[in-house]
Amino acid sequence: MASTTTSTPLRIAIIGAGPGGLVLARLLHLANIPFALYEAEPSRTSREQGGSLDLHEESGQLALHAAGLYSEWKKIARSEGEDMRVADKHGKLFMEEVDTQGRNNRPEVDRIQLRGLLLDSLPEETIHWGHKMRSISPSSDDDGKHDVHLETAAGTRMETFDLVVGADGAWSKVRPLLSGTKPHYSTISCLDTRIRSVDTLHPAISKLVGQGTYLAFSDRKGLVGQRNGDGSIRTYIMLQKPETWLKDVGVDWSDEMATKNYMLEEEFKDWSEELKGLITHANPDIAARPFYMLPTDFSWTSKPGLTILGDAAHLMTPFAGEGVNLAMADAMDLSKAIVKASTESEDTQLFDAIKEFEKTMLVRSHEKMEETWRNLELFFKPDAPKEFVQVFEEMMAAHGPPPEVPKGYS
Ligand SMILES: Cc1cc2nc3c(=O)[nH]c(=O)nc-3n(C[C@H](O)[C@H](O)[C@H](O)COP(=O)(O)OP(=O)(O)OC[C@H]3O[C@@H](n4cnc5c(N)ncnc54)[C@H](O)[C@@H]3O)c2cc1C
């Protein structure tokens, strides 16, 4: 990557230290381009990070190559995590992809480990923890700069930037400056929890889920068990329901017994006893949330001094496992655009480079948003998972092995 940059560096702010913001930060750091990364959370340990992610060769893995972190990631990646079983509510298997020996090259990594890898690759002082962006507005000079208003434990302050990158997730505060479109409810509500020390405490569940992911779908509902690297199994209980159902149904989701009783006696009462174990043995820390998404053709007209990436640009549900992968690929492409516009020998204006980046990102994300929406529809059909498995097998047959990583990365 080029390191010859102009003598007056751009002032760049990245809002959000999720996978997208962190990959961008790492790549700018490697290119000697200064930036400030603002994260609302007070520290790297302040929030539980969620389950496991499979990184794809053509996106997430490619970004790790560019970031010089591929070999480190390989040490923590679990190729056995690729195993996948798809069943119905009786536990009848419709698909079993096990012992793949890493054939699909989509190894799993726990989200906390991926985040740690990225955080450790950055100088500590580049990340401003506990800096929540309260608002952003065009600066008074109207020259494409923006004023970022930050809230910290010490009070509020304002900084002005040439480029503000909204890597601030689903409810981005940067996105409204580019578009009036808001995320809408995806029709799916989800409860997630985990079963710790599963091998010793619940060997039957451990065997059911295996080393990868077990998905059971029927009657517009799903139970998913996902092996994590820390000896636990993350479980997702998903239901196709109206937007306010989680609030309206009258169950206190922070009450473990009330939640389990409701799910076992109402929603999943005719599911197999084996599958119901994913609910019965869940630990008490249950998080309930509706899934939101942006329209699958979401786009905007580019504006100088601003851009968005990751969930801020293409929020989708997790049903194709693409969100993190796209966020990382976006960050890689955006870093190239910024480097190009910052290099003396190149005659590229920042705004032109950003427009080009957004064009590429939107083509890629529209395809994945469509795929994700199609998977959601197939998973939540009353006779699921029959049609999902058919479509998946047809797709695998048509696409063949995953694409190769272009040469030239470390
Ligand atoms: C249950 C579930 C399972 C999923 N499973 C997968 C999977 O298997 N594979 C996959 O690829 N994707 C998966 N996803 C999607 C994935 O989590 C997201 O696509 C991904 O995290 C997006 O990364 P990001 O960097 O764009 O945003 P985020 O990860 O949301 O990060 C945004 C960051 O910005 C910070 N922030 C927000 N607002 C502000 C502010 N105003 N000021 C400062 N900081 C702010 C937040 O605190 C956060 O740290 C899943 C999502 C869910 C909900």
TrEMBL record:
Q: Name one Pfam family in it.
A: FAD_binding_3
Which SUPFAM superfamilies does the protein's record reference?
Answer: FAD/NAD(P)-binding domain
Q: Note the PANTHER family from the entry.
A: FAD DEPENDENT OXIDOREDUCTASE DOMAIN-CONTAINING PROTEIN (PTHR46972:SF1), MONOOXYGENASE ASQM-RELATED (PTHR46972)
For this UniProt entry, the molecular function terms from Gene Ontology, in alphabetical order, are: FAD binding; monooxygenase activity
| Protein name according to UniProt | FAD-binding domain-containing protein
UniProt keyword Oxidoreductase present: yes
Chain ranges of the FAD-binding domain = 12-353
Keyword Ubl conjugation (UniProt): no
Q: What is the lineage of its organism?
A: Eukaryota, Fungi, Dikarya, Ascomycota, Pezizomycotina
Q: What's the domain of life for this entry?
A: Eukaryota
Instruction: Please name the InterPro entries in this protein's record.
Output: FAD-bd, FAD/NAD-bd_sf, TetX_monooxygenase
* GO BP terms: response to antibiotic
Keywords, sorted A to Z: FAD, Flavoprotein, Monooxygenase, Oxidoreductase
Organism of this sequence:
Alectoria fallacina
